[in-house]
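Lecture 7 notes: from sequence to structure.
We start with the chain below.
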Amino acid sequence: MSFDPQPLFFWYRVDPINKFMEAGAIPFWLVVSGIFGLVVLSISILNIFIIHRRAGGRVLVRETAGCISDLSSISLRRVFALTKLTFLEAYRRKALAVFVVFGLLFMFAGWFMGGTGEITNDQVKIYVSFVLRAITWLTLPVVVVLSCFGIPEDIRLRSIHTVVTKPARRLEIVLGRILGFSLIGTVVLVVMSAVGYVWIVRQIPKEAKENGMLTCRVPSYGKLLFLDRSGLPVASGINVGDVWEFQSFIEGATAARAIWKFENVNELALDADGNLNLENRFSAFRSYKGDMKRQLFYDFKFTNPEKQVGPDHKPLSFTTEPREVNEFRGSTDKIPRKLSRIGEANTYDLINDFVTASGSLTVEVSCLDRQQYIGLARPDLFIRKPDQPFWYGYAKATLGIELLLLLVSIISVTASTFLKGPIAALTTTCLLLLGGEASHKFMDDLLIGLMRPEGFKGGGFLESIYRLVTHANLVTELPDNPAVLIMKNFDSMLTVMMYVFKSIIPRLKYFNMSDYVSNGFDVPWNESVVPSLVVTLGYFLPCVLLGYFALRIRELESKWTIWQPLKPINLSIFAALCCY
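Predicted structure tokens for the same chain:
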């Protein structure tokens, strides 16, 4: 697998290499939400005093009391009524017409995706990926358009006055809109996913299903460590010059090893025949061609540091017979519970002898061919637990799409409370594009370089301009004077602001669960389902409060908002950030 699923840590974790503590998701969310909330609150208070001048204090007190009253008197009955109203309005706007496009796709998809008779794993991957991606990219535009144009259209047509003159609070309007648009997206998603599942099952022959092509493997990943050719611990293996740096390599016929440590290993990890299934995706790199038809060889070595044998008190270990590397498809090695070698009387029990008291199992992998290399990464070896049915992983992938629709509805409705429909749709689309893993990786690399001067030569915004004007190269030391100190401090403050703004952009990699199912894996709870749920809940509360305050201080009779007096300041800040 080319992806490395990592569990989400909530409170803190200790970096295993640098040994420093990192803040978890919840503390980080509190800090970023607090900073962003203070910025919005400061702008709102400043706007109130700019507009009302001397009466600004009295207006601020009145608005604060009104907000407390609204938050304390929210009614679920009114929220559900507004949800129903929003759903019916979306239905009248022909939102379900997307089923026509979906039906046309599946009517003619078989013409272009049909096989030659014998189906392969690649075809199954294409079928599953096509269905899940089609569902995603057909439902997202519907939710974005409905959510972004709902409140602005109500304001333009003045139909919102029918609601605000009732006892309904503006907070209930925001919640009702979010739930209503999410509900219409859920209806579309449920119908499409059900039809897509039936289409996938009908496209795959019965023989292929019996051979396990349509299943969900349950992997159990471990922690990976490396030893160099001298047997000393290193952070990674050898870089052989491959463009794809996901894997690193170990040298054959040396002390180089790749060591996996699996946790929570017990008898439940064995299959019905009592075997431990170790599935791998190793790759091979040859320093000389030799016999190209001959595969490279590797072996497994199980060790238990808690049990020592012999006069040298070495850890108990067992090395398996050599095995061939399947470079392009991978392979599954069935390790029997009773371990023995031909010609030896000793017999070991894999669970009782090599699993420690804490439930960890250590597996060492070595390359047996001299001057040849085997490439490995953390997810390239895992314990394959008993498989789950295909519908189970497919349902969780559909749940990921549902959580993405809910997140998009939250962001879109919030943006529509202080922006017009087209601008709100553009803002939501930009956030979705920036939420991809490639964009986040670029922003992370940029900000890490700015925070660590040795990793990013040239400095920040003002320092870069200073070097351009003075024709100073990237390694020239700047003069030690107050002006340079002020310049660097300003760049540091701007970098922190950029880091906060970057953190507001949602990280959408957790919601993309189609890669798991299309590759034949079950969707992991800790690495994908739970993080996507936490991200959605993390945006729900701040966005709902922001939408409520924006809608409360907005003049519904006017095309302009109370944010209008600060537009020149906002545009100048935005231009500075873009230049940065």
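Points to note: The radius of gyration is 29 Å. The longest helix spans residues 121-157.
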